[in-house]
């Protein structure tokens, strides 16, 4: 089972290496990792996607909470949350297929962020399924390069009753 974990950490040298080392040292795979400062520049949020059963996740949580620079660990499993990824896709664009590519970009609410005589670079945000869907539609045109950020996540606000 896939798990998305949010970890608030002190924004200090070596914290990322220690957390990555914790995962690799125990044989846990990190499928996706995104790190950035929070509103407080002394604190960073790490969004980690990993796989495993509940026992593995419990072990990961315990090990993360033992690290001095870890402030809070939050597993989004079983609750409502918002997740997004950003992708840049460089696709071959010829005079004959440019209109069709732009149509796909429009349908997915993506945007072209760079144009050259032979390529379009497309920016898209969304969940993993949306990015995979546009990638599959663009593949026949000739994808030259793809860069993805990895998943970021935030808990949904409680609904007002």
Would you mind describing this structure in some detail?
This protein is α+β, with helices and mostly antiparallel strands and 161 residues long. The chain has four helices and nine strands; from the N terminus they run βαββαββαββαββ. The chain has helices at 15-25, 54-66, 98-107, 128-138, and strands spanning 2-10, 30-37, 43-51, 70-75, 81-92, 111-115, 119-126, 143-148, 152-155. The strands form two sheets. Strands 5, 6, 7, 8 and 9 form a five-stranded antiparallel β-sheet that branches. A hairpin with a 3-residue loop joins β6 (111-115) and β7. The longest helix has 13 residues, at 54-66. The mean pLDDT is 93.
Give a short synopsis of this structure.
The chain is 28% helix and 42% strand.
């Amino acid at each position: 089972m896939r798990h998305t974990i949010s970890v608030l950490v002190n924004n200090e040298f070596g914290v990322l290496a220690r957390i990555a080392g914790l995962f690799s040292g125990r044989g846990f795979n990190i499928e996706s990792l995104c790190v950035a400062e929070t509103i407080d520049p002394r604190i960073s949020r790490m969004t980690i996607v990993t796989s495993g059963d509940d026992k593995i996740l419990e072990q990961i949580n315990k090990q993360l909470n033992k690290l001095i620079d870890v402030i809070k660990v939050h597993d989004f499993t079983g609750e409502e949350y918002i997740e997004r990824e950003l992708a840049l896709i460089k696709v071959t664009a010829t005079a004959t297929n440019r209109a069709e590519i732009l149509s796909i970009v429009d349908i997915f609410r993506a945007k072209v962020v760079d144009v050259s005589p032979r390529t379009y670079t497309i920016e898209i945000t969304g969940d993993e399924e949306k990015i995979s869907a546009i990638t599959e539609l663009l593949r026949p045109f000739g994808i030259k390069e793809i860069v993805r950020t990895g998943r970021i996540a935030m808990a949904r606000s409680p609904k007002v009753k």
